Each structure stands twice: as C-alpha cells, then as structure tokens.
Amino acid sequence: xxxxxxxxxxxxxIPSVDHEHRQLIGLINEAYAxxxxxxxxxxxERCLEDICTAIAAHFxxxxxxxxxxxxxxxAAHKDEHEDLLDQIRELMDEFAADPEAGRATLRQRLADWxxxxxxxxxxxxxEAFGDH
Amino acid sequence: xxxxxxxxxxxxxxxxxxLLERGFGxxxxxxxxxxxxxxxxxxxxxxxxxxxxxxxxxxVAGAYASVEYLTHEQWYLGGVMRSxxxxxxxxxxxxxxxxxLREFAYDRHRGMRWFSWVTGIPLLWLVIPxxxxxxxxxxxxxxxxVALTSAELMDALPIFSESMARNFLSxxxxxxxxxxxxxxxxxxxxxxxxxxxxWLHVLRINGPRINPPRALMAGSLAAMVVLSxxxxxxxxxxxxxxxxxxxxxxxxxxLLVYPLAKAWSPGWxxxxxxxxxLLLCALPWVAPMRGKSPAHVDLDNCxxxxxxxxxxxxxxITMQPRSDGQAYEIEAVVDPALCMSCGLCTGACPTATPFxxxxxxxxxxxxxxxxxxxxxxxxxxxxxxxxxERRILVFGCQENAQSRRMKAVVNDAExxxxxxxxxxxxxxxxxxxxxxxxLADGIVVAGCPGGxxxxxxxxxxxxxxxARQRDPHLRKRVDSARLALAWEDRWHGCRDLPDVVAAxxxxxxxxxxxxxxxxPRQPRRALRHALxxxxxxxxxxxxxWLSVWPRFHLIDAGHAMVSLSFSHAGQRVRECRTLTQEExxxxxxxxRKPQDCPRERLPIRVLFxxxxxxxxxxxxxxTGLWNDGSANLYRRLEVPAGTQELFIGMxxxxxxxxxxxxxxxxxxxGPGQHVVVEFDSERGAFxxxxx
Lengths: 132, 691
Description:
The complex is a heterodimer of chains A (132) and B (691).
Chain A: H1 15-36, H2 41-68, H3 74-97, H4 99-130
Chain B: H1 2-28, H2 34-55, H3 60-73, H4 75-105, H5 114-138, H6 141-155, H7 176-201, H8 214-230, E1 248-249, H9 252-255, H10 258-263, H11 266-286, E2 296-297, H12 307-311, E3 317-321, E4 330-334, H13 344-348, E5 365-366, H14 372-385, E6 392-397, H15 401-410, E7 415-420, H16 428-436, E8 442-446, H17 458-466, E9 483-485, H18 497-507, H19 525-548, E10 551-552, E11 559-568, E12 577-578, H20 581-586, E13 595-596, E14 604-610, E15 613-620, E16 631-640, E17 642-651, E18 661-669, E19 674-680, E20 685-689
Parallel strand pairs in B: 6-7, 6-8, 8-9, 11-19
Antiparallel strand pairs in B: 1-10, 2-5, 3-4, 11-16, 12-13, 14-15, 14-17, 17-18, 19-20
C-alpha cells in the first residue's frame, strides 16, 4: 500500500516543480514502506535524511518560481516552508533518539506532514499558477 | 617584493582599522567603505558644483569676480558650497589612495579581480585633471600658475606645434574661448567619462556598494560643513601677469606633480606619471595569484534554485537553460574566468547538508579544493577528539591570519579549529548538524576581522543566514546562544579570536540549562563617540591642511621671471629661382608658376644672456610636416633681481656669425617681476615687455 498518490490535479504547470513533487511523493512512500517493513533504524534514518535534503532543495526551487512570478502569498508560503524544514529535523532527531517509539509517530506524522502542506499551501499555489 | 609591500601596507592599515573600529564599530568602519565614500564625495562635489556653476561666469574678466562674489557676498551659501566643492574633492583623493592601498595590501587586486583593479587606474587620470581644470577655472593667481604649468606640460607632448603656454603670458593673448573649453571639460567632458568609468569599475562585481552607510554620509557631510565655516576656501588674488606671486597655497592632492615640473623637464614628469600608471596596471600579473579551482556544478544535485547565483559576490554564476535533459528549466553555470573560489555558493546550496549518508555528500555546487564531504569528515574527526563540558569548534576562513595563528595556539582538548575557505562557505545545516548531534557545545565562525570580508559578502551573508534572514536559513531549532560570529558587533569588544572563543565558552549554557548569553564588554558609548568625532576631525584637518599648505614658491626669493616667447619663420633652404620661358613651356599650362621656391626652411638660432652670461642658447627647428612652418620658442627662466643687462639675439641662417635681430637693454628687475621677451615679425624687432 502506498501512502500518497500523485493526482493529475496536483499539476502546477511548472515542469520542474511537478517533477520534484512526484519525486518527493516517491521518497515519502519509500520511507513509509521501510517503516511498514522490517527495515532497521539506520535505513529509516537515511531515508529521512534524503527527504530532508530533497525537500530543502525543492523548497528553494519553488521559492524561486514564486518570487519570479511575484506570488502574492510568498511570505506566508516561505514561512511554512521554514516551519516544515524545522519539523522534519525534529522528526529526524526524535527518531534517532528513540527509534522504537519513533516508528509509530513517524508512520502517522509522515503523511500529515507533507500531505498537509500539499493540500493547503501548494493547492493555493496551484490556483495562482495553474491558470496559465 | 610585492608580498613585502603588501605586508607593509597591512602593517599601516591594520592599526588604523582597529582604532577606527573602536569608534565606529565594525559595520560603520570607514575603512570598509572607502570606495563608496569616494563615490559619495563625488556626489557632494556634483551638487555643490551645480550651485557654483549657476553663478560662475565663463570669461577671462568674469571668472575671478564671479567666484569672489560667491565666496564673500554669498558666504553663507555660495561660500559654503565652494568650500564643500573643494574639501569633498580633496577628501575623495584620500579615500581613493587608501582604497587602492587597501585593495592592494589585502590582495584584492589580482586573480579574477584584475578587472576592477585595472579599470580603476584610468579613473585616476580622470579625477586629477578634473581637479586641475577646477583650479584653473577660478582664475586667481593659483589658476594662472596651474594654466601656465599645465600648458608647459601639454607642450611637451607632440600634439600642438605652437606653444600653448604662450597663451597665458599676457591678458591680450588670453581668450574667453579657452574658458569655454575648460568649463566644458570640467563640467561635462571629464565627469561624463568618470561616471562611465565608475560603471565599468564595478561592472564585474555583484551588488557593488555604491553608497556608504547613512551615518557615515551624515557624519562626513557635517564635518565638511563645519570645516567650510571654520576654514573657508578662498581665492589667492587676482591674476597680474606682470608679477609672479611670491608663494602659492598649492592643493597637494591634485597638484602634487606640478612642483616637479619646476625641477624636472616636462618629459620626465610625463614619464613618471605614465610609468607609474603602467606599473599599477601590470601589478595583478607581476606576481599572479596562485591558481585555485573554481566552483564545480554537479547537475544531478542542481535543480536550478539559483541561490548560488544570487549569493556569488563576483557574478561568476549564471543560470542557463538545462543541458542534461532533466525535467528542470535551468542550471547553474560557473564562469571560471570570474570565479574567485570563495565557496559562498556552496554555503548557499540547499543540498550542501551533512545530513546525507544514503548518497554521497555531493552538493549541487562544490569547491574542489575543500569539498563539503571533506568538511563533514574533518568535523567528525575533530569532534571525536574533543573532551569536556564546553567543547567549541572554530571555523576560520583561510584568509584570516588570526585563525591561522590561532590554529597553533588554541588546539586544546576543548577546542578545535577547522578550515573553511570563507565564513560564507560554511552551509548553515552544518551548524545544526554539529549542535544536534552533540559534536560540540558551541561554534565560533571567524571571518575577516572587522567584517571586511576578503570575498566581499562572506561575513554579511553568514550573519544574515544565521539570523534566518537570508537563504539558506539556520534552522530555528538551533540555539543561537551557542553560535558566535566573531566579526559581529556583539563580539567586537573582544580583540582577538581567542577572546571570542573564551567569551563564548564563558556564556555557554551548562548542559541541560538554557543559558543567558552576556556579550563581552564593549567600549563605552561616550568614548566611542569621542573617538569617531576625533577621527572626523583628524581626517578633515588633513584635508584642509594639504589643500593649501605647505606653500609653494614659484621662483626663488630675490629673482624675477623672464619668459622667452616668440615664433619666427627662418629663411628658406635656398633662394627662389625664376624659371626660364623654356622651362615653363614644358610644364602643363595650369602649373606654370614663374618662381620655384623650396618649402623647407632653415632652423633659427637664439641666444639669451644676462650681463653677458648665457642663460639660453638653442637652435630651433621649423615646425610642419615639410619643415615649412615657423620655429617656436617658449622658455621660462629665473633671473636675479636688480639692474641687469638683458640681451636677446636671433639668427635666421644656420652657421652664420652674429645675429640678424637682437636687442640689448639695461632693465631694472624687481623681485617677482615678470618680463616677456617678444618678437614682432612685422617690424622685425624684439621687445622686453613689462606690463
């Protein structure tokens, strides 16, 4: 079972951003699969680090597109990005500190964490970018 | 040799920087804003110049009077504007020289930065004539001296066949047209090229600092206004060409080489100026910078976010269409000819994070000389050796001599010092990594002292990134109390890097307890203000002092000045010959000129003597491409005052004895008197003219 599913409706129309969204969904699903399976804590940590790196780069790219397009809600969206990056770092540290307890919380929060951002902020971005 | 000069330069500038830092703090330290101050002074000159021009009369008769009116009748405004005009332009020379010295001493003139260095040299050649034409326009006695000496210098160049200096020997020879030309050069011509030159000078750098901080602008303007009231700029007496002023207050900032023209021949003066300029131009290549590897882009890790391009201080990174077929629009491309290898791009790259163990730590853009992976490795190794409760990792930029020295001193059990290329080379996630993985308890980042970064923006970008105001932000979860940026105001009470380390260690929160950081003691506010005020006072006192003092003596005491100034066409090389009818018939009808005259003329010989002692003797060649023009003589001589017999003789025929024209006269010469020896070609007679 996969956690997140890419939907055509997610398409922003910016090929690079859409490409990375798909990649990120893939990475999160992979992490989830590792959690569901019997992967060791170290492998899961590495997965989280990949997500952290990919998402930091992705936000940087998305921010550039938002700035270039003069996106009105840039500041709020940017703040959300920074919060998300802090949160994934929290998740990483929490998991590293206590992998057994971490597994359960991680399984639950992984979907909320990225899915939530995707549903709200990037959906608004979609409204702004999707039309052209 | 170059390295020694640079060491001497730093040895001169470093104490000055430290002293000024105590008064102004690192952010406002004027030594960090020399180029921008220069441009600011130029603005002051421009604005005050516009006011002066409104009242200035561009004519021989009107120039002096209109400047006198401005200075005295309108002393509260026009006079102040005139003083601001002078003092701002003098101040600009000091900042300009310091700017050059600083860039040279701190090794910022070579490598990829040669362009800014070399394009700065022509600016000197624009600024100095700008000042010279300015003094000329005032047309007081200094203006006359400037005109005369400038013309003598110009005469040494093979441009004009007639002597330009002869225009400035009598009122009759002087024309208003000359003032129009000077005004054009001073008001439009030179400033236009100067603005263009400044644009070129900063073209290759990213985000050049054109304006100094407001506090410095306000402070220096206030100091200049005070100076203008206390010691206003004034003219030095109306031009009287019959006497030479005993001494003149010379503006040494602009007229430094003029006294040389008295002792040396103009050719040597030009040689010195051109030679020195060429030497400066060649400086970046005399000892070329050791090659460093430029930044390297790894396309698999580059999604085109452009942060590196935004942060590059030298405009070496451009974003260009994707070349590898990945689903991204653009990619970063490094121009190796512009890259200074500072690593600020790696510090900006979102993929330069040590939390990458699954894949190799290869950021989208990396420094081959010190890769991010190697940096992480050195951190892990150093951390493994640290012991104690308050372990500190110090990141020292390679340019920072302090951090190099400290490496030998402070590598104790609780402290380790690691290299980064520049403070801005350290990506913020590394700070998060070290503190969250408990690799150390505190981090010190050392940049160039005083926040004057070798790579322009390293300290500034790092401050902003760590303050979460510039990408990539340091994560909010990182405890800033554990991070000390050694160049920041907060730490500038510490004299040296070891002091910063000690201060951070003292304020580090004990394990488990959030600490309240207490900044090191800073100089008292009153003391700081007093130091800053003293710095302004000293600077502008120097400006005013060298603008009129030491005074220059045009001629030695007890002497008069004699100018030999005339032109005369010598005889033709042979007599004209009348052609016979037979010869004429052979010529085409339209060319039947009855006389055949050679164009070429003979040189003339001139001798000038005082009481039978020869002061000048020379053979003057005719001018013109065909040697068919008149021979010109201009020579300025000093003659002891008193009753003297002057003799001038001229021979038109080479090799002949005696003189075709001569004049001997006993003249009573007063000290400082100016006598012009002229020749009236029509009457064929010499004259010793005293006005």
